[in-house]
Amino acid sequence: MYYLSFPITAVVSILFCIYSNITLAQSETEVLKTETCWAYTVENNVPATSGSVLRKTEYDDQGKKTKTTTYKEDGSIAYEYFFEYTLNGRETYWKLSDGTKVKSETEIYNDDGYLLERIQYSTDGKLKDKLKIAYEKGQKSREIYFNALNEIIFAIDYTYNKAQNSIRESYTDYIDDENTIGAIDLDANALPKAYTEYKTSGPLVRSIIYERDEDGRILTKETYNPDNELQLKEVYEYTENATLYSVYINKGKQLAEHVVYKYDYYQNK
Fold first, then answer.
1. 5, burial (CB in 10 Å: exposed 0-12, middle 13-18, buried 19+)
2. If we measure between CA atoms, which residue out of 83, 131, 87 comes closest to residue 109?
3. Prediction pTM value
4. Under DSSP, is residue 13 helix (H, G, I), strand (E, B) or coil?
5. ∠ at Cα 105 (10, 195), nearest 5°?
6. Whether 225 contacts 231, CB under 8 Å
7. Nearest-CA neighbor of 142 among 168, 163, 109, 164?
8. C-beta of residue 27 within 8 angstroms of C-beta of residue 41
9. Are 203 and 196 in contact (CB under 8 A)?
10. Confidence of residue 268 (pLDDT cuts 50, 70, 90)
11. DSSP secondary structure string, 88-139?
12. Residue 154, Cβ neighbours under 10 Å: how many?
């Protein structure tokens, strides 16, 4: 089981795009060329000495993503995604052996580069799910999520305090009526330092604490249950051309996953 996309909240995920957890800061002379994710099996609570490629993402010399390849455990290709760009959009597709394109995802952005809409498609070309995002005065105000029938399944509304050091989110579930309220506390760099989620009826759902380095990169992320017991601990380590990511479960004591993101750059751009 992989924890790479372990859900926090939609807003936290988008905020991380500003200061990515798994992408190195690039200088003016370095543009990311490839990002390769290596997965390592866990033996006796430590990662094995050798791993296998899980995923590789390629970029052009302008820093735009062009291709993502996912591999099976035996090293063979599971599937490939390709990316094409328009002035305010991006399309992701599979390419079949005969050259036929099969659309996978489309994204639309506003003139400021913020995502307005993301639509994902099934392999038969039908709608899989959809996300729409609204903004007010340059800040995200609402996210609306749709199912394969184009029905709203849940929405998240965001409000910001005057000091801009916290965000409150209101989660509305249109299917199961399990509504929650979330609170995101931001540090001096407007990055999440703590997250707390409650049911609208009052009980605590979970809380998350972040530790960052001086560059704003996450060092640890700890998720606690309503009884304040550590449930999940994620640890990040950074080197010149790699990021190490480890996930610990069972009160943060058992290593469940270890992956390494390795980076290659275009030079002298």
1. exposed
2. 87
3. 0.83
4. helix
5. 10
6. yes
7. 168
8. no
9. no
10. low
11. TEEEEEEE-TTS-EEEEEEEEE-TTS-EEEEEEE-TTS-EEEEEEEEEETTE
12. 19
H/E element, 265:
strand 254-267
Instruction: Extract the tokens encoding 208.
Output: 């998350």
Is pLDDT of 9 > 50?
no
Please tell me the distance from the alpha carbon of residue 204 to that of residue 207, in angstroms, as a whole number: 8
- In three-state secondary structure terms, 177 is coil
Res 255 pLDDT > 80: yes
SS3 10: helix
Q: Which two tokens stand for residue 134?
A: 């609204």
Q: Which two tokens stand for residue 42?
A: 């866990």
One-letter identity of residue 57: T
Torsions phi, psi for 11 (to 5 deg): -65, -40
Decide if 1 contacts 256 (C-beta within 8 A): yes
The residues that bridge with 118 in the sheet, in sequence order, are: 107, 131
Q: Is the pLDDT of residue 162 over 90?
A: no
Greatest extent of the chain over all pairs of C-alpha atoms, in Å = 57
Cα distance between residue 144 and residue 121, in whole Å: 17
Q: Which residue has the tokens 């490939």?
A: 80
* pLDDT attached to residue 29: 59
Question: Count of alpha carbons within 13 Å of 249, Cβ hemisphere only?
Answer: 8
- Rounded Cα distance between 26 and 32, Å, is 7
Q: Is 202 exposed, middle or buried (0-12, 13-18, 19+ CB in 10 A)?
A: exposed
Any long-range contacts for 152-158 (C-beta under 8 Å, 24+ apart)? 156/9, 156/10, 156/11, 158/11
